């Protein structure tokens, strides 16, 4: 059973030891004192060192290093279009080539005008490009975003959807939000606690909440959500890079199916903390039978000059 800790902004799942961290017993009290601490810091900062808190703005490398030559930008965009076409063909989504070219041009303009400049903990240029273009291509009537953080992906979802598309944003904490979409409805709880009515809707779900992706997959199967995007879809080879991985990820489920991992318990170190996964607790075989397509977003560094911020995948159900 999942447990949600608003204070720590974490979801605790039964498949691993959660770095031996425990949810707060009294989150309301903890949040109260955290709020006092935050306000005191803000007050002291304003009184003593205004510039330190008021004017300091961290910018992602994307906004500090970029191409300005039109010919290079056109060359880059054409290569991006080629990569998108390859990817859309792999996941068997119909499209028009001229539309993809326009989507890329639109995305570059929209990205440049983003209200979020610090992307250290979320999507970057490359992942956002695929999210934006997939949504533009599929034209969903309802988008679910589970895990909001600062709101950069909300901004992209807002820009990629038409005015009639519903956007439902879920998170157990709104503390870090910097951008809110006027088209979106916000819910400060996990989607599993009160699932929305999705009847007669073409739904795309974007899962970026560091919660068990197996549980999210089961949710999508139960609620007939055909199109899904999973951020942090890491494998057993690279999941140690994530501070709070969504164990088990979709990638891990397929690795388990191939019987690659022989141990009952898998241990790792992440930022000095020891984690353990209990593989016997992961009952996955029925769930992955419902997956029709599963493809990781490609790394576009050689084309854009920007490294991917995370490993993201598209999952289409049968």
What report would you give on this structure?
There is one protein chain. The chain is α/β, with parallel strands linked by helices and 318 residues long. The chain has a single domain (3-317), classed as 3-Layer(aba) Sandwich (Rossmann fold), CATH 3.40.50.150. Helices cover 36% and strands 16% of the residues. The protein contains ten helices and eleven strands. The strands form three sheets. A seven-stranded mixed sheet has the order 5-4-3-6-7-11-10, sandwiched between helices. Strands 1-2 form a two-stranded antiparallel ribbon. Strands 8-9 form a two-stranded antiparallel sheet. Helix 3 (70-90) packs across helix 4 (97-112), helix 4 crosses helix 5 (125-138) and helix 5 (125-138) runs parallel beside helix 6. The longest helix is centred in the first third of the chain and has 22 residues, at 27-48. It is globular, with a radius of gyration of 20 Å.
What does this entry show, briefly?
This protein is of the alpha/beta class. It has a single domain (3-317), classed as 3-Layer(aba) Sandwich (Rossmann fold), CATH 3.40.50.
Which assembly state applies to the chains in this document? single chain
- Output the structural class: alpha/beta
**CATH homology superfamily:** Vaccinia Virus protein VP39
Tell me the CATH architecture: 3-Layer(aba) Sandwich
Q: Can you list the strand order of the major beta sheet?
A: 5-4-3-6-7-11-10
Cα shape: globular
Mean pLDDT: 91
End-to-end CA span: 27 Å
Our Rg estimate from Cα atoms comes to 20 Å
Helix and strand element order? EEHHHHHEHEEEHEHEEHEHE
What is the top-level CATH class?
A: Alpha Beta
Strand proportion, as a percent range, falls in 15-25%
CATH topology: Rossmann fold
Q: In DSSP terms, counting alpha (H) and pi (I) runs of 4 or more, how many helices?
A: 10
Helix content: 25-40%
Low-confidence stretches: 47-55
Number of strands: 11
Biggest β-sheet strands, sense, barrel: 7 strands, mixed
Domain module count: 1
């Amino acid at each position: 059973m999942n447990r949600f800790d608003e204070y720590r902004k974490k979801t605790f799942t039964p498949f691993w030891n959660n770095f031996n961290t425990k949810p707060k017993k009294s989150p309301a009290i903890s949040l109260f004192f955290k709020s006092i601490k935050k306000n005191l810091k803000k007050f002291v900062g304003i009184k003593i060192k205004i510039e330190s808190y008021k004017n300091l703005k961290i910018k992602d490398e994307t906004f500090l290093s970029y191409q300005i030559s039109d010919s290079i930008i056109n060359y880059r965009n054409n290569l991006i279009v080629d990569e998108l076409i390859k990817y859309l063909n792999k996941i068997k989504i119909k499209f028009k080539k001229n539309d993809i070219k326009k989507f890329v041009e639109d995305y570059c303009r929209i990205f440049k005008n983003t209200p979020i400049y610090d992307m250290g903990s979320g999507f970057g240029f490359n992942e956002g490009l695929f999210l934006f273009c997939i949504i533009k291509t599929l034209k969903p009537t309802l988008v679910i975003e589970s895990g909001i953080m600062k709101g950069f992906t909300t901004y992209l979802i807002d820009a990629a959807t038409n005015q009639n598309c519903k956007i439902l944003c879920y998170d157990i904490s709104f503390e870090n939000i910097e951008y809110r979409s006027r088209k979106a409805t916000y819910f400060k709880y996990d989607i599993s606690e009160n699932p929305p009515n999705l009847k007669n809707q073409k739904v795309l779900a974007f899962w970026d909440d560091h919660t068990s992706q197996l549980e999210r997959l089961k949710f999508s199967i139960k609620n007939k959500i055909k199109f899904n995007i999973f951020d942090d879809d890491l494998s057993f080879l690279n999941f140690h890079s994530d501070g709070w991985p969504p164990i088990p990820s979709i990638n891990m489920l397929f690795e388990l199916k191939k019987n690659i991992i022989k141990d009952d318990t898998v241990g790792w170190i992440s930022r000095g903390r020891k984690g353990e996964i209990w593989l016997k607790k992961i009952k996955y075989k029925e769930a992955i039978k419902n997956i029709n397509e599963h493809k990781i977003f490609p790394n576009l560094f050689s084309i854009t000059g920007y490294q991917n911020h995370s490993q993201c995948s598209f999952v289409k159900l049968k």
